[in-house]
């Protein structure tokens, strides 16, 4: 018999999965509240991959919303921000001089409220937070 089969069913039923709100296991306040109620001694850990994925999703959603507000439609290849969408998901410090010029031109042309730039800056802050020590999994405190 394997070690997994020897474990009781209780820990397996209390595993934290992906919530319906789109977060990845305890990052949103709804999930966190439920986890704290059901498992008061549990520590909630955020892994680096999900942190970056959520930040990228936020930048994409802001870019799409601004494009719809400006043009009344989805982005197309003629829209500078849409054409530069991969640059928005890359850390500014990792861009070449030519890419930075294209990035800045796209934001100047199609980001009148500066919301896309703010979201992209937030992405950079989230990625920088990766250098903080992160637990690899949630454990219960004894």
In short:
This protein has 142 residues and is mostly helical. The chain contains 8 helices and no strands.
Could you walk me through the main structural features you see in this protein, from its secondary elements to its overall organization?
The protein is built from eight helices and no strands. The chain has 142 residues and is an all-alpha fold. The longest helix is centred in the middle third of the chain and has 24 residues. The radius of gyration is 20 Å and the shape is elongated. The chain starts with a helix and ends in a 14-residue tail after the last helix.
Mean pLDDT: 74
Distance between the termini: 28 Å
**Largest β sheet strand count, sense and barrel closure:** none
Shape: elongated
Number of strands: 0
Stretches where pLDDT falls below 50 for ≥5 residues? 12-17, 132-139
Order of helices and strands: HHHHHHHH
* SS-based class: mainly alpha
Count of runs of 4 or more consecutive helical residues: 8
Gyration radius, rounded: 20 Å
Portion in strands: under 5%
* Helix percentage range: 55-70%
């Amino acid at each position: 018999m394997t070690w997994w089969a020897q474990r009781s069913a209780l820990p397996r039923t209390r595993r934290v999965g992906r919530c319906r709100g789109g977060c990845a296991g305890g990052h949103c306040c709804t999930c966190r509240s439920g986890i704290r109620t059901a498992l008061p001694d549990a520590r909630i850990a955020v892994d680096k991959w999900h942190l970056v994925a959520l930040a990228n999703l936020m930048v994409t959603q802001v870019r799409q919303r601004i494009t719809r507000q400006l043009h009344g439609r989805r982005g197309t290849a003629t829209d500078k921000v849409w054409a530069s969408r991969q640059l928005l998901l890359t850390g500014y410090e990792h861009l070449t001089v030519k890419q930075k010029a294209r990035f800045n031109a796209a934001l100047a042309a199609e980001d009148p409220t500066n919301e896309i730039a703010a979201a992209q800056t937030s992405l950079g802050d989230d990625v920088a937070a990766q250098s903080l020590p992160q637990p690899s999994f949630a454990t219960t405190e004894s």
